[in-house]
Design goal:
The chain is mostly helical. The protein has helices at about 5-40, 45-85, 90-100, 110-120.
Length: about 120
């Protein structure tokens, strides 16, 4: 059964991976600019090749990080669906906000339940 603790852990995991993705994207931009600068300045071919390898490694990390983020988000969505009725809104608000959709609403009561409450 999902708990508030599990929900917090999965939300934090998504936040961490998202932060990591932004970091890798910035790194790719930085390394690409450095590579272009080295080419313009006529840097040593060996140094240029090493810089291109660094840029290639940085570029490889972006799709990997996106894939991990997609998996973590799917895991978080599954947990939210399972525990939406069990947790208070305040506990799941942070996770729902991260995913970009409003909290799930409880399904309407079954017609028999309505009759029981009216007859009581």
């Amino acid at each position: 059964m999902a708990t508030v603790r599990n929900l917090k852990i999965k939300t934090s995991t998504c936040k961490r991976i998202l932060k990591e993705l932004h970091s890798y994207e910035k790194e790719v931009e930085r390394e690409a600019a450095k590579t272009v600068d080295m080419k313009e300045k006529g840097a040593d071919p060996y140094d240029l090749k090493q810089q291109e390898n660094v840029l290639a490694e940085s570029r490889m990390m972006v799709p990997d990080c996106r894939k991990r983020l997609e998996g973590a988000l799917e895991d978080l969505k599954g947990t939210l669906v399972m525990c939406n009725m069990l947790l208070p809104i305040s506990a799941s608000f942070n996770a729902f906000t991260l995913l970009g959709f409003p909290p799930l609403k409880l399904p309407p009561p079954h017609p028999r339940e309505k009759l029981r409450t009216q007859n009581s």
